[in-house]
Structure formats: structure tokens, C-alpha cells
Amino acid sequence: MRILVTGGAGFIGSAVVRHLVRDVGARVLNLDKLTYAANLAAVENAVFSPNYAFVKADIADAEAVGRAIAEFRPDAIMNLAAETHVDRSIDGPLAFVQTNVMGTAALLHEATRYWRGLDPAARARFRFLQVSTDEVYGALGEEGAFTEASPYRPNSPYAASKAGADHLARAWFRTYGLPTLISNCSNNYGPWQFWEKLIPLMTIKAVRGEKLPVYGDGRQVRDWLYVEDHAEALHAILTRGTPGETYLVGGGEECRNLDVVSAICDLVDELEGVQQEGPRRRLISFVPDRPGHDFRYAIDCTRIERELGWKAGQRSFAEGLRRTVTWYLEHRGWWEDGMRERYDGGRLGVT
């Protein structure tokens, strides 16, 4: 299978590329703009395979995208190219609209032009997977979980831009017949995640003995999904899902942000040794909450489990978190250099 993966140098995208090349044996073209959060090194051993190729391009550049599609002739396109950090969307929302909305529209347009030119058998096989987030559904209360029937109620510029992209993918299916699928996932974590996100940032600050800023009272709840489990789910949706449908992917393990940070402190104490000043939980500090911060996300994975055979929780959150924290401790050179050159870990998203 020939698969074009956009955003394949990003955190989730690189995990998808690794899985497709290493475990599935697919031929993959990685199309990525290489923004601040991209890292081609994350593709790891996949880059040494003859089944892998890379092209630097912006999905909003229709000419470059059309050329890449025409030359590679994919059987499927997986769109993981996106601006993803909620705090950055508060500071600069237009960049999120440009990539997540306009970029997805350009990609869908070029994919449709290509798809229409295929022979009937190839047209029937072709798929376009729009990879999205549970944040499009807004916030949950103390109980319940998002399902494929949940209404869209985005509360951040990031979530709104991803909701717009989802609506475009659905519209292209209804209007033009392009065989699109949509996936909405919970919070991903694992190796190679850029350190603006909660788990890597708190790990790095704990290693350095810096204050650990927790938004509000830290009681916000997230459903945590190990990135490699997510990559496997996306391949299942792409190859076994029904065009025009949506599939939710979650880890099945809810945890309060404060409890996640506390667990990171304990792991760093265990792996690095307790500091002379005392356990790292002393570094936790509460800061003003993020504007529009959603209280709770949770995913009901019944559909993907029942219809596609993928099950959540293949790795427990405790196991995945230990593996992730250990990975960051073993790859200090990567994030130390990056913190000097790209992002120093300071607060973002303050209006």
C-alpha cells in the first residue's frame, strides 16, 4: 500500500510513519512543512528503508501538494499536518486557521482531483483519513464520555480550527464522493513529543529542579493515549473503516493533570534520585488557568473496538508514563539543544 502521510515529522505523524514502514511494510511519502515542532529524527529507522521518502512542503501550498500526489500516486492519504498546541492558538489563532482549515481544504481539493483520475478499481480502494482531536467536542462534566454522535462545541481557536477541518472532510465526502474518514483522539503522549506539551515539559522542568506550573487547581481530567497505540488505531481506521464515518480513539485511562504531574515527580525522583532539597513534588506551583480551559475529556471507544477490532489500553498509563519519562531522561541532548534554539519552556497562551 502506498500512503501519503502529511505532518509525518510531527509527534503523532512520526509514530504513524514508523508503524507503517516498520510494522505494516507500506510505502510511505512523508510530506511535512518542518515547523518548530517537527523533527525528522523521530522517524528513526524508517528513514533508512527504501519504502520511505520525504518531501518538504506546506499542505496549504496546493501546487506543491498536487505535484507530490501526482508523482507518488498514493492509495491513501493520512492528514496529520496541523498546528496543535492550544496555548499557541490563543497567542496566534490565524496560523491555526491557515494550516488546519485552509491547508486541509487545499489537500482535500488536490486529493479529489487525483482520485477522479484513477481507474475504477483504484478509486474504490482510495481513502483519505482526516486525523482530529476530541477537543472539537468541547468540555465534559464529571461524568459521561464523547461518542461519535457528540455535537461539536469547540472552545479554543485550536479546537475550532480542527472542527473546521473535520467539517470540510465530511463535506468533501457528501458533495464530491471523496472516500474520507475522520478520527478524533484523546491526549497523546510518548517519546519525541515536543516539550511545549504537559508531560514532556513537566518532566524536563522536574529534571532541572524548576517550578512545575499547574494551571488552575490541576483538577482538569484528560484521557491519555500512548502514541504508538494511536498509530495502530489509525491504520485500522484507514484500512477497515467505512468512508464517511467517524471513529473515536482513546486510551481509556482518565487522570487529573495534578496527578499526572505528581506521578512525573515521583518517577524522576526514582530514576534520577531525590534532590537535596527534597522530593520534586515540592516544585508544583499553581498558576492562573488557561483561558477557556476545558474541564474534562473522555472517549467512548466502543465503535472502533466493535467494528475494527482495535482495543484501548494496550499499554497502561503507568507503564506508558514510565517509558516516556525514561525516554526523556535518556535523550537530554535533543531537548537541551532545542530549548536553547526553539522554545525555552516559558508560559504561553496568556491573554
Question: What low-confidence regions span 5 or more consecutive residues with pLDDT below 50?
Answer: none
> From the 3D coordinates, which CATH architecture of the domain at 2-190 and 226-253 and 293-315 would you assign?
3-Layer(aba) Sandwich
Structural class: alpha/beta
Beta-strand level of the residues, as a percent range? 15-25%
User: What's the CATH topology name of the domain at 2-190 and 226-253 and 293-315?
Assistant: Rossmann fold
Task: Provide structural commentary.
The chain is of the alpha/beta class and 351 residues long. The chain has a domain at 2-190 and 226-253 and 293-315: 3-Layer(aba) Sandwich (Rossmann fold), CATH 3.40.50. Helices cover 44% and strands 16% of the residues. The strands form three sheets. Strands 3-2-1-4-5-6-10 form a seven-stranded parallel β-sheet, with helices on both faces. Helix 1 (11-24) crosses helix 8 (227-240), helix 4 (93-116) runs parallel beside helix 6 (157-176) and helix 7 (198-208) packs across helix 9 (257-272).
